[in-house]
Amino acid sequence: MHTQSGHDKRVRVAGIATYDEVIADRLDVSGVLTVDGDVRVERAKLSGATTVQSDLRVDTMTVSGATNVDGDVTAADITVSGSLSATGTTAADAFECSGSVQLEHVKADGFEASGAVEARTIQAGTVRIRGAIEAGRVEADDVGFDLVSDSVVSRLVGDSVVVSRHRPDGFLRAEHVEGDRVALDHVDVGTVVGDHVRLGSDARVEVVRADELDAADGATVGTVERRE
Length: 228
Description:
By secondary structure, the protein is mainly beta. The protein has strands spanning 3-13, 16-29, 32-35, 39-46, 49-52, 56-63, 66-69, 73-80, 83-97, 100-113, 116-129, 132-147, 150-165, 171-184, 187-199, 203-215, 220-225. It has an 8-stranded parallel barrel.
């Protein structure tokens, strides 16, 4: 297939195209695009199938198709209603997902998802999940999970951590949850550490280390320890 360089004000792909790189003000994909190198654009609207085999740098990006990036993604605003995967670090001021994402490392001021999230690490100012999440570590100032199905996070850390469910199947399993203010329900957690910990009636925790603990009737707590 012919490989070309996408250097223009606007690059449009409606059929099948392969570029060695794309540098433009705007990138619109409604077909199938493969980029062997970097993509650097101000705006990207990706409604087809896009594969970037290096880094993607963009100001504003909307993904309603399937986008795969074999590198880093750097953006001011990312909106995903389709699917996005990236093997490097995804950095954004604002990240919104109503589709599905498979990411390695996420750094964002705000991360909101109402779809399915898979990530090794998420570091953000605010994390809001109304969907399902599978992650190694989530760390943010303000964490709020309103889950719709089974979710797993190895380590969940924040100043404020609130976990509840949006649908009857919503449930979180975690090894460690830590925060100044922690409120958990519909969870199974190994260790919870916090200044103020509140557990709902469907919370199961093996060890709680807290200054203050408020456990509802029905909550299951193995061991309660005072914080040193």
